[in-house]
Amino acid sequence: MYYKIRNDVLFRKYQGHGYITDNSEYGYRMLNDARIHPGEKYVSASGAVMLSMLSKSPRAIDDIVGDLSQIFTGVEYETLKQDTIEFFDWFVDEGFLSCGKTVDTCTDRFVADILRPDNRNPAQDGMARSDCTGGEISPNDFLRSIHIEIADACNERCVHCYIPNERKNNAIDPALFY
After folding, report:
1. Residues 91 and 152 in one domain
2. Distance from CA of residue 126 to its chain's centroid?
3. CA nearest 2: which of 77, 95, 100?
4. Rounded Cα distance, 35 and 13, in Å
5. What share of the chain is helix, strand, coil (3-state, %, to 5)?
6. CB-based contact 110:33 (threshold 8 Å)
7. Phi, psi dihedral angles at 44 (to 5 degrees)
8. What secondary structure letter does DSSP report for 166?
9. pLDDT on residue 73
10. Which end of the chain, C or N, has fewer beta carbons within 10 A?
11. d(Cα 66, Cα 77) in Å, to the nearest integer?
12. Residue 142: inside a domain, yes or no?
């Protein structure tokens, strides 16, 4: 079995925990986006060590467990392997990881293809409610981020900036902002 971190997922390992988040569309979503987004999760220090063994390229479970056995000494190989598979499979079900029997089959699939554990439609679970567009807001929908630009006036010329240099002189009307 092979595992990898999905291409649209971001994982960070910190001193005492790990953080994994769906980074698709960098937090921006369209109103007609019906896909299920995994959101974000925090993991313990040992969970962070396990996830840090993965990258965007598939790795064989035996290679992963081999590396983990150097860190988690005193744990039987088969026990560590079973725990790692169970842990990774949970993140596959949640939409953060991809898995496959071969390197070629360990590819990302749309999170919408991942069935909800109870196979219910979000609109049927009592939490869905209509929004102003006439669509449904599922329990997975939440405000992920908001970006209000009150001024794009800037004398920097950052390579990554999305504002063309000739347009870096506008400011929002204060009445519109308030």
Report:
1. no
2. 25
3. 100
4. 27
5. 30, 20, 50
6. no
7. -70, 175
8. G
9. 92
10. C
11. 8
12. no
- d(CA 80, CA 86) in angstroms, rounded, equals 10
Q: Calculate the average pLDDT of the chain.
A: 77
Task: Please check whether residues 92 and 157 belong to one and the same domain.
Answer: no
For residue 153, the enclosing domain spans 148-178
Residue 143 located in a structural domain: no
Q: Which two tokens stand for residue 80?
A: 């560590």
Residue 6 — φ and ψ, nearest 5°? Answer: -60, 150
Residues 57 and 128 in one domain: yes
Residues 10 and 65 in one domain: yes
What are the tens digits of pLDDT across the range 35-67?
A: 666 778 889 999 999 999 999 999 999 999 999
Other CB atoms within 10 A of residue 144 CB: 15
> How many structural domains compose the chain?
2
pTM: 0.59
Q: Report the alpha-carbon distance of residue 161 to residue 61 in Å, rounded.
A: 40
Which residue is it, tokens 């035996």? Answer: 62
Domain assignment present for residue 42? The answer is yes
Residue with tokens 């590396």: 67
* Contacts with 47 (C-beta within 8 Å, 6 or more apart), sequence order: 18, 87
Quickly count: other Cβ atoms within 10 Å of residue 38's Cβ.
21
Same domain, 49 and 116: yes
Instruction: List C-alpha distances in Å: 137 to 30, 125, 169.
Output: 12, 11, 37
- Residues 94 and 39: their CA atoms lie apart, in Å, by 9
